[in-house]
């Protein structure tokens, strides 16, 4: 027979558990640091300070967990699908960027994000994105001398 | 004072004034845009300052910081949505004033009160920073450790679950500062074999991610919100009657804002909210508050701008940031290889002249721009999110990539954008994480050096009076909210 479903009492409970999990993982990682021979070591070892900080974070996480036990159950609003689509677009943009170059990728990303967020006038999105991209290129590449990935269309920009 | 003003006069060249003007204009512009705060803009433009010399960079960021606080009041008054969090208290009375057709009067008072508060705090900055810095000149590693711990503990001074979350975020910021090679032993920590992480996590992508990208993702959840902008005439200079009524509020705001700004971790938003409550408490027209009281605009606006100068005091004199934006400015200076602290006054006084000069100039410039161009700035609020935020995305990507020209930094930015989104969703603020990240190295180095001095005896700290005093203040401030709760509970039981 399936047991009763775990019911989260308050979002802080989840936050506290996440804090404790991250702290536990970080603490475990400190044991993988290279060990320094005792003869060469002066003062604290490289793992000691992070362990102190993790200990502090864990204590605070436990306090948050303890405080959250008396809070009334509360559900956070669901994350809308548009958020996942936006993050997906960001990931795709960064994946494409080194191959296509900054200016074409970011111009495309600006138009795509604007469209995704409900602006259906493509001419308007393009009218904003193209001068913006040209301005950024002029400022960073031409004026400040910062080199950005140019991609196969870099020759257009000179 | 005269020496400082002479120094300011010498350093404020035409070029630097132009940079300050651009910074002020940009500051008002972004301050007026809901979601784009002064700290977000400073984080976004940090890469741009890497190409400037350090003096120009700090003048530019200082101007943005000053002007963004004022810019935030424009949207607070016209659409009841503060463009910058520090203007949230301004909306309480600013919007009702605008609703009864007095938007121009509200904006005028906001510009004048902000300028008075800002100039007052710059004067305090000129006097207090050298004094504090002279006092701190004799500080050794134990005192610095105690000071950094005090700075971080102030994240918890607000009390409640928010305090716990801020302290947790601060701890994770310090932990992030541990990533990379340990300077005393040469051992790599939390690098996972990635060469990009050997030198530690770069500040710029973390800041861009936490402030700009996280806000962009958060904006995606609010696309359905419709903002109603009230009509306005041009901003009007306050009348003598307005000054008579609001003069005391401006005074209270200027003093409280500067004092609160000086305390590490408490910035302009806290200053404005506390001032609003105090101004209402001391007002003869309490019943007008919340319905469009001019004092309710004057006090918080003077406070949030005076907190700017106040928060620069510990940042410059001690290297301990007074707010989220000063943490970003400090990060910008660290990227340039400059660490503010007591020695800065003797070694590179031009920095201080640049800060004082740029902040004075920014306050005067935004007064003029605010009075004459408020109507134009108000139109910024009409830019739809679908056109504005793609531009922010573009700047974020370039900003993260440009300093090291590494794609790894762009991925770091995205990762911290997602982390920042979940942080906000669960009530964690990104600012403490940044404070921890900026102070982390100082905390670890000063602790290790102190223990070397004390021959690894932790009790050695008790032999240093200043450090002991700072530890006592830290513990008292941390315990204060719990003590206050206990006293309230006892009183409740007794009643």
Q: Could you explain how this protein is built, in words?
A:
The complex is a heterodimer of chains A (158) and B (495). Chain A is flat and about 60 Å long. With 158 residues, chain A is mostly helical. Mean pLDDT of chain A is 86; it is low at 1-5. In chain A, helix 1 runs antiparallel to helix 2. Helices cover 65% and strands 0% of the residues of chain A. The longest helix of chain A is centred in the C-terminal third of the chain and has 22 residues, at 122-143. Chain B has one domain (2-142, 202-423). Chain B is built from 19 helices and 2 strands. At the A-B interface, helix 1, helix 2, helix 3, helix 4 and helix 5 of A face helix 8, strand 2, helix 9, helix 16 and helix 17 of B.
Biggest interface, which chains? A-B, 70 and 57 residues
Assign a percent range to the helix content of chain B. Answer: over 70%
List the domain count of chain B as a whole number: 1
Q: pLDDT below 50 for ≥5 consecutive residues: which ranges of chain B?
A: none
Please tell me what the overall shape of chain B is.
globular
Mean pLDDT of chain B: 85
Total separate domains of chain A? 2
Supply Rg of chain A: 25 Å
Q: Can I get a quick summary?
A:
The complex is a heterodimer of chains A (158) and B (495). Chain A is mainly α.
Defining traits:
heterodimer; A: 158 residues; mainly alpha; 2 domains; 6 helices; 65% helix; disordered N terminus; B: 495 residues; two-stranded antiparallel ribbon; 19 helices; 73% helix; globular
Strand and helix layout:
The complex is a heterodimer of chains A (158) and B (495).
Chain A: H1 11-30, H2 48-68, H3 81-100, H4 102-116, H5 122-143, H6 154-157
Chain B: H1 2-11, H2 14-31, H3 38-50, H4 54-79, H5 88-99, H6 103-136, H7 141-153, H8 160-177, E1 180-181, E2 188-189, H9 203-220, H10 240-262, H11 268-282, H12 295-318, H13 324-335, H14 344-347, H15 349-379, H16 385-401, H17 407-425, H18 430-453, H19 465-494
Antiparallel strand pairs in B: 1-2
Helix pairs in contact in B: 1-15, 2-4, 2-15, 3-4, 3-9, 3-13, 3-16, 4-5, 4-6, 4-12, 4-13, 4-15, 5-6, 5-12, 6-10, 6-12, 6-15, 7-18, 7-19, 8-18, 9-16, 9-17, 9-18, 10-11, 10-12, 11-12, 13-18, 16-17
């Amino acid at each position: 027979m399936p047991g009763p479903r775990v019911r989260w009492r308050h979002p802080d409970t989840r936050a506290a558990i996440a804090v404790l999990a991250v702290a536990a993982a970080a603490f475990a990682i400190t044991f993988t640091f290279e060990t320094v021979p005792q003869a060469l070591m002066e003062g604290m070892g490289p793992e000691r300070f992070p362990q102190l900080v993790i200990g502090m974070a864990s204590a605070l996480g436990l306090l948050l967990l303890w405080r959250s036990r008396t809070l009334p159950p509360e559900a956070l609003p669901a994350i809308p699908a548009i958020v996942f689509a936006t993050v997906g677009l960001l990931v795709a943009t960064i994946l494409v960027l080194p191959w296509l170059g900054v200016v074409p990728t970011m111009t495309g990303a600006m138009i795509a994000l604007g469209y995704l967020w409900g602006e259906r006038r493509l001419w308007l999105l393009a009218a904003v994105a193209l001068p913006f991209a040209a301005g950024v290129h002029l400022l960073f590449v031409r004026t400040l001398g910062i080199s950005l990935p140019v991609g196969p269309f870099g020759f257009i920009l000179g | 004072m005269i020496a400082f003003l002479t120094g300011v006069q010498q350093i404020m060249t035409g070029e630097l004034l132009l940079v300050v003007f651009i910074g002020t204009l940009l500051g008002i512009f972004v301050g007026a845009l809901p979601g784009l705060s002064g700290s977000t803009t400073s984080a976004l433009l940090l890469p741009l300052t890497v190409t400037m010399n350090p003096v120009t960079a700090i003048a530019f960021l200082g101007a943005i910081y000053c002007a963004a606080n004022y810019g935030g009041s424009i949207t607070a008054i016209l659409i009841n949505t503060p463009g910058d969090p520090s203007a949230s208290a301004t909306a309480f009375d600013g919007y009702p004033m605008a609703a009864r057709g007095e938007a121009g009067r509200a904006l005028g008072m906001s510009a004048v009160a902000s300028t008075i508060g800002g100039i007052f705090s710059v004067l305090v900055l000129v006097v207090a920073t050298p004094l504090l810095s002279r006092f701190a000149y004799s500080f050794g590693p134990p005192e610095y450790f105690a000071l950094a711990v005090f700075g971080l503990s102030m994240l918890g001074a607000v009390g409640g679950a928010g305090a716990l979350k801020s302290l947790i975020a601060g701890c994770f910021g310090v932990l992030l500062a541990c990533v990379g090679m340990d300077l005393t032993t040469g051992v790599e920590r939390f690098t996972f074999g990635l060469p990009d992480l050997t030198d530690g996590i770069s500040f710029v992508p973390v800041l861009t991610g936490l402030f700009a990208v996280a806000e962009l993702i958060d904006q995606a959840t609010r696309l359905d919100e419709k903002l109603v902008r009230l009509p306005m005439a041009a901003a009007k200079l306050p009348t003598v009657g307005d000054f008579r009524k609001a003069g005391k509020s401006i005074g209270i705001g200027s003093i409280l804002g500067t004092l609160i700004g000086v305390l590490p971790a408490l910035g302009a938003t806290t200053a404005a909210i506390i001032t609003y409550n105090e101004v209402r408490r001391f007002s003869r027209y309490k019943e007008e508050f919340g319905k469009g009281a001019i004092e309710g605009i004057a006090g918080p606006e003077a406070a949030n701008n005076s907190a700017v100068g106040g928060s620069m005091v510990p940042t410059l004199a001690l290297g301990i940031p007074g707010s989220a934006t000063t943490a970003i400015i400090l990060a910008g200076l660290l990227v340039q290889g400059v660490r503010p602290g007591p020695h800065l006054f003797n070694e590179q006084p031009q920095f201080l002249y640049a800060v004082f000069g740029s902040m004075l100039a920014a306050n005067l410039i935004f007064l003029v721009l605010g009075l004459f161009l408020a109507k134009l700035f108000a139109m910024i609020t009409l830019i739809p999110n679908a056109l504005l935020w793609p531009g922010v995305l573009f700047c974020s990507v370039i900003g993260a990539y440009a300093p090291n020209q590494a794609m790894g930094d762009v991925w770091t930015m995205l990762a911290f954008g997602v982390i920042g989104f979940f942080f906000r969703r669960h009530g964690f603020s990104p600012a403490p994480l940044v404070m921890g990240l900026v102070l982390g190295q100082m905390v670890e180095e000063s602790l290790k050096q102190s223990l070397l001095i004390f021959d690894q005896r932790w009790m050695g700290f008790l032999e240093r009076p200043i450090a002991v005093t700072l530890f006592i203040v830290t513990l008292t401030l941390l315990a204060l909210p719990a003590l206050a709760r206990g006293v309230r509970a006892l009183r409740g039981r007794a009643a």
